[in-house]
Write a structure and sequence with these properties.
7 helices, binds magnesium ion, alpha/beta, globular, about 45% helix, binds 3-methylbut-3-enyl trihydrogen diphosphate, Undecaprenyl pyrophosphate synthetase
Length: about 240
């Protein structure tokens, strides 16, 4: 692996709807194209020897979209899991899902649980999808769990550290992202991995997600390679 590459890349896959509207298609065509890009980027990440890839696919706030769009997205997700989980198992990928998975339709929850179980022993790229995800809720839940442990006497308040909080997040088993990519030009985080991206390098491209090809991905890696990460120190 190229030592200048990030170990963990997180991506806010934004702009499907605008991409579709730009060419006079309904928004859902953008989501279909978006799935193709997911495939392409997973393959590119594998080829580049990236260890962790985390994709923001559906936020807690996205439930407030029109019912027809939400249903379409759930259908796409279900189809994606049917088609890809077996392939992931065979290709040595680890499938992971974070977010409030209980909000998702039950058949999807079941497929995800099976996918996580069946790929757990794999050793390649860890691909994490964020569904019904809200970073603020994740942090609030972590606090609730820690408070419960304090009440049970398992931990003392003065023993709570940053590490304790990290270990109670959905991402407990993942290192923090080194690089956060957002497509479609928006300069915001939209409630994604607020705690975990403290020192991530940010890369925003004007390309809509359906336009984010392997070349665009490599351009993001290239830009990352030129950054000087200082972590508050003087180098
Ligand atoms: C990202 O594209 C996909 C999801 C949030 C599900 P959008 O659907 O947000 O597309 P835009 O941002 O409206 O163009
Ligand atoms: C963020 O995109 C969520 C995902 C990409 C899944 P949104 O389109 O929902 O974010 P806003 O509304 O532009 O902040
Ligand atoms: Mg959007």
């Amino acid at each position: 692996m190229n030592p200048n590459h990030p170990q963990h890349i997180a991506i806010i896959m934004d702009g499907n709807g605008r991409w579709a509207e730009k060419q006079g298609f309904p928004r859902i065509r953008g989501h279909e194209m978006g799935v193709r890009r997911v495939e392409e980027i997973i393959r590119a990440a594998q080829d580049e020897g990236i260890k962790y890839l985390t994709l923001y696919a559906f936020s807690k706030e996205n439930w407030q979209r029109p019912q027809a769009e939400v249903s379409f997205l759930m259908g796409l997700l279900s189809q994606y899991l049917d088609q890809k989980l077996k392939e992931m198992k065979k290709n040595n990928l680890v499938f992971n899902a974070i977010g409030e998975l209980r909000d998702l339709p039950e058949p999807i929850q079941k497929k995800m649980a099976e996918g996580m179980r069946d790929t757990r022993q794999n050793t390649g790229l860890v691909i994490t999808f964020a569904f019904s995800y809200s970073s603020r809720r994740e942090i609030a839940e972590a606090c609730r769990k820690i408070a419960g442990e304090v009440l049970k006497g398992l931990i003392k308040p003065e023993e709570i550290t940053e590490q304790t909080l990290s270990e109670h997040l959905y991402t407990a088993n993942l290192p923090d992202p080194d690089l956060l990519v957002r497509t479609s030009g928006e300069m915001r985080i939209s409630n994604f991995l607020l705690w975990q991206i403290s020192y991530a390098e940010l890369y925003v491209t004007e390309k809509f997600w359906p336009e984010f090809t392997r070349e665009e991905f490599l351009a993001a890696l290239d830009a990352y390679g030129k950054r000087e990460r200082r972590f508050g120190q003087i180098l």
